[in-house]
């Protein structure tokens, strides 16, 4: 009912993953359609927005692209708190980054928003010759943990837009348009859908 | 310049400072990496992390090596990222931290409130001089090594600024981890590290990271302002130049209709977008107020509200409005 193109639904989305797996590159590809071979390390986090039009709704992603360096880890909860969706990125040429991705998924499932939509992205799929993580292994892990999975390449743009569109489709569409201050129509006893959006950021 | 020039390369054996033995681990790792061109030219050295488990094992082995001369640790079988990680780990684990908390605070103060770069650097010199000789020695070893890494930046893709982003928190750490994280997150620690790396605060010469040669004071100011500008301001020049090319949107067939809307949306908002930002962003929109610092930060980022009001600006936006003045 609130699904009108004029007022997009806002969703907070966070990217997590080890350093140098391509988080910023994925976001940059999605938001601006660009790719740089030499992308510098991210400090703290970068914030971007992008709108995705689905058939009946418009979804606006508020994207927090976090720094992957281990030393920034203690800041991560501030970024994933209240997020409606998370993309956990690993590099298909690094088993260590896959292991790190798994621990991010665990952390999100334990401490993130209970209804958070998690997508696992195996990035750098263009580097097939250096592949260390098989897609089947990742897919199986994703199924076991009930999260989405896609192999992407920010460099060739393969599956990047698809990833975000899939996430947009999975997100609950019946949320309030107002921020928490206008909480008149939050139905506390109806956990089905209302609790998911950024409206709940104060309580989750 | 007080004691900086003295005792160069000499570790005082009788110091009560417990960090002395760690200096040997640092030397071992840096020596090994520098020894072979292939190692120091590894792409993303210090940025790409090695296996945490392997790093842990290696650090423990090297610590044992110090206590008994029998267990010699051979690094040749290790991966470059593991050795680099072990070096970082050793620095991070130094207890008490390499830079004492008082000096840490003063360095942050100096980078935030100095009237000029010259003034800032002279404060840095004074502060570093007040550390113990062993600490200065470790810092000197590390910075000298980092300069070597930057000299191979064409191959390893680690420019001075990039290297400082990933290395800063290893040498600059406050026992209060939130303090470390916040100063790291807003980009202050990388700035301090960069100033230490290119200036003569601790090494006897200045260093031009672009041309890899000693430089004069004036030039040094330019480098620092340029790099600091990159941390602080909207974008680095190269980024702006590139972003002029119109974005292309490879469209998947099944999502075609959905993306048409996105494209038109974007086309209208594109020209106003300023570029990529390397600044401190406050993620707490309405929820987090864990500490006084966060509250202050929140108060400063008034643009959050402004952004919510505007529906149509779809690109990079500046939420951390107070990036320069973050207190």
Automatic annotation (TrEMBL), chain A:
Spell out the coiled coil positions from the record: none
Family matches, as InterPro entries = P-loop_NTPase, Small_GTP-bd, Small_GTPase
Entry annotated with the keyword Nucleotide-binding: yes
Q: Region (Disordered): which ranges?
A: 171-204
Q: Where is the composition biased (Polar residues)?
A: 173-186
Keywords, comma-separated and alphabetical: Nucleotide-binding
Which is an annotated GO molecular function term of this record? Answer: GTPase activity
Kindly provide the name given to this protein in its UniProt entry.
Uncharacterized protein
What organism, scientifically named, is this protein from?
Guillardia theta (strain CCMP2712)
Automatic annotation (TrEMBL), chain B:
Q: Please provide, in alphabetical order, the Gene Ontology terms of the cellular component aspect for this entry.
A: cytoplasm
Please name the CDD domains in this protein's record: RhoGAP (cd00159)
Composition bias, Basic and acidic residues: 255-264
Membrane-spanning intervals of the chain: none
GO MF annotations, alphabetized: GTPase activator activity
Q: What are the start and end residues of every segment in region (Disordered)?
A: 239-327
Q: Which PROSITE patterns match?
A: RHOGAP
SMART domains with a match to the protein in the record: RhoGAP (SM00324)
Listed under GO biological process in this entry are: small GTPase-mediated signal transduction
Rho-GAP domain mapped to chain residues: 14-210
Give the top-rank taxon of the lineage listed in the UniProt record for this protein. Answer: Eukaryota
Pfam families for the chain: RhoGAP (PF00620)
Which InterPro entries does this entry report, sorted A to Z?
Rho_GTPase_activation_prot, RhoGAP_dom
The protein depicted here goes by the name Rho-GAP domain-containing protein
The record lists the organism as Guillardia theta (strain CCMP2712)
């Amino acid at each position: 009912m609130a699904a009108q193109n004029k007022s997009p639904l806002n969703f907070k989305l966070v990217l997590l993953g080890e350093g140098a797996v391509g988080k910023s590159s994925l976001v940059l590809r999605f938001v601006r359609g660009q790719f740089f071979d030499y992308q510098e390390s991210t400090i703290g986090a970068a914030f971007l927005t992008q709108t995705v039009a689905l058939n009946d709704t418009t979804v606006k992603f508020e994207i927090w692209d976090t720094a992957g360096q281990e030393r920034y880890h203690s800041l991560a909860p501030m970024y994933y708190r209240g997020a409606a969706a998370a993309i956990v990125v690993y590099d298909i040429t690094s088993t260590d980054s896959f292991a790190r991705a798994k621990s991010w998924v665990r952390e999100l499932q334990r401490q993130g928003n209970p209804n958070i939509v998690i997508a696992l992205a195996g990035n750098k799929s263009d580097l097939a010759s250096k592949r260390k993580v098989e897609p089947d292994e990742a897919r199986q892990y994703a199924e076991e943990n009930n999260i989405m999975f896609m192999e992407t390449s920010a460099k060739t743009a393969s599956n990047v837009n698809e990833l975000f569109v899939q996430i947009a489709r999975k997100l609950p569409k019946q949320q309030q348009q107002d921020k928490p201050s206008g909480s008149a129509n939050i139905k506390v006893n109806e956990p089905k859908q209302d609790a998911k959006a950024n409206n709940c950021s104060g309580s989750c | 310049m007080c004691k900086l020039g003295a005792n160069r390369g000499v570790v005082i054996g009788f110091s009560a400072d417990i960090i002395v033995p760690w200096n040997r681990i640092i030397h071992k790792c840096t020596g090994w990496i520098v020894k072979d061109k292939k190692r120091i030219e590894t792409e993303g050295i210090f940025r790409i992390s090695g296996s945490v488990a392997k790093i842990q094992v290696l650090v423990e082995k090297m610590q044992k090596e110090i206590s008994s001369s029998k267990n010699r640790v051979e690094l040749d079988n290790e991966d470059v990222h593991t050795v680099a990680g072990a070096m970082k780990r050793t620095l991070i684990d130094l207890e008490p931290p390499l830079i004492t908390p008082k000096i840490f605070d003063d360095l942050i103060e100096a980078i935030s409130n100095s009237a000029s770069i010259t003034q800032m650097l002279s404060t840095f010199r004074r502060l570093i001089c007040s550390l113990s000789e062993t600490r200065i020695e470790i810092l000197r070893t590390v910075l000298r090594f980092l300069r070597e890494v930057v000299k191979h930046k064409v191959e390893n893709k680690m420019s001075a600024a990039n290297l400082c982003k990933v290395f800063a928190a290893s040498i600059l750490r406050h026992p209060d981890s939130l303090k470390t994280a916040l100063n790291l997150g807003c980009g202050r620690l990388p700035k301090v590290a960069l100033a230490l790396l290119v200036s003569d605060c601790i090494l006897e010469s200045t260093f031009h990271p672009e041309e890899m040669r000693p430089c004069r004071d004036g030039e040094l100011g330019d480098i620092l302002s340029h790099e600091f500008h990159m941390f602080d301001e909207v974008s680095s020049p190269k980024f702006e130049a590139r972003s002029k090319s119109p974005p292309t949107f490879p469209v998947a067939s099944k999502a075609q209709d959905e993306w048409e809307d996105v494209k038109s949306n974007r086309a209208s908002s594109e020209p106003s977008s300023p570029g990529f930002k390397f600044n401190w962003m406050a993620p707490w929109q309405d929820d987090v107020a864990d500490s006084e610092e966060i509250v202050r930060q929140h108060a400063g980022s008034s643009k959050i509200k402004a952004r919510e009001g505007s529906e149509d600006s779809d690109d990079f936006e500046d939420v951390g409005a107070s990036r320069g003045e973050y207190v």
